[in-house]
Amino acid sequence: MEIQSIAVLTSGGDSQGMNAAVRAVVRSALYYGMKVYGVQRGYQGLINGDFREMDLRSVGDIIQRGGTILQTARCKEFMTEEGQRLAAEQLRRRGIEGLVVIGGDGSYRGAQKLSELGIRTMGLPGTIDNDIPFTDFTIGFDTAVSIVVDAINKLRDTMTSHERSSVVEVMGRHCGDIALHAGLASGAEAILIPEVEFDVKEIAERMSGNFNCGKRHSIIVVAEGVGKGEDVARQINELIDIEPRVTVLGHIQRGGTPTHNDRILASRLGDFAVRKLMEGESGKACGVVQGELIATDIDLVVSSKKPFNMELYELAMRLSQ
Ligand code: ADP
Ligand code: F6P
């Protein structure tokens, strides 16, 4: 066996399924006879030397838990060359040859820097945003969408009773996927996302027309990437005689038990990352495309934009009358 010791960390915003991914990395590494270390608090823990050796029991009873047992952080010091050098040195000092980084595109850039310093690195897409190319889904996205759909179901009950309209602001940073998938799955009347231009006047007129034709509620999903739900509601209210209630779902979307899809995705990717490190690969991001596991150069992943699923958007619009 070529590689004897690896480490794993979680970085950036947490997401449901990160624990399942940590578990898969640890258990696969142990299965293949390696030593495996957990690094606390992402790149900050790497710089500080905050490592602990993991065994089978260190990752027991976590597959179903949200958050990350390794904690996560955003670390400014690691953005500097000096920080990156210190981090690589901490790994070398312990004889750790490989590192699995679970996080978003910022964390991937960090992994790429370590790869350039001679540490074998693998990235796993841990973010609710689904904004990483070369993977159909990121770990946490499925759970976040389920949370939004569940919230909209509840909002619908009260909106229907009062014949009201609801604006729901969801996360996703610059990506509209949470809004798009949750909007389609919950029958939203409009989905406002950064990838598609929209006209609030046209939306307001449609809402008004629908209420006049007997519709008893309306749900507008707003991705945070287009702005604040409050602003959209105010604009609608200025145009028509409807005063939408606003719900900002916020960090609720990042918590709770991961869905089975996220657990399976995390388990497959964690194991795959370990096997890729064993094969001598480095500077790669792991993903699943049409069911197949793939490893793509991080350079390419961080310089590409995730393709937008216009077909899904058009479907949502056709059905949202
Ligand atoms: P995410 O991984 O969820 O996108 P961030 O963008 O906050 O979250 O990135 C997480 C961490 O990754 C940052 O705090 C920083 O330590 C590291 N990082 C981000 N971008 C870079 C970069 N260009 N070079 C080196 N490290 C980076
Ligand atoms: O990247 C995950 C995410 O939850 C985004 O959807 C959101 O824009 C951001 O992180 C929020 O960051 P913070 O947790 O620092 O408020």
UniProtKB/TrEMBL annotation:
Chief location of this protein within or outside the cell: cytoplasm
Residues at which ADP binds: 23-27, 156, 187-189, 215-217
E.C. no: 2.7.1.11
Subcellular location: Cytoplasm
Binding site for substrate: 127-129, 164, 171-173, 224, 245, 251-254
Cofactor entry: Mg(2+)
GO MF annotation, one: 6-phosphofructokinase activity
Gene3D superfamilies: 3.40.50.450, Phosphofructokinase domain (3.40.50.460)
Ranges where the Phosphofructokinase domain occurs: 6-275
Keywords annotated in UniProt: Allosteric enzyme, ATP-binding, Cytoplasm, Glycolysis, Kinase, Magnesium, Metal-binding, Nucleotide-binding, Transferase
Pfam families noted in UniProt: PFK
Regulation: Allosterically activated by ADP and other diphosphonucleosides, and allosterically inhibited by phosphoenolpyruvate.
Annotated residues for binding of ATP: 13, 74-75, 104-107
Similarity section: Belongs to the phosphofructokinase type A (PFKA) family. ATP-dependent PFK group I subfamily. Prokaryotic clade 'B1' sub-subfamily.
Subunit comment: Homotetramer.
Name of protein: ATP-dependent 6-phosphofructokinase
Source organism of the structure: Ferviditalea candida
Gene: pfkA
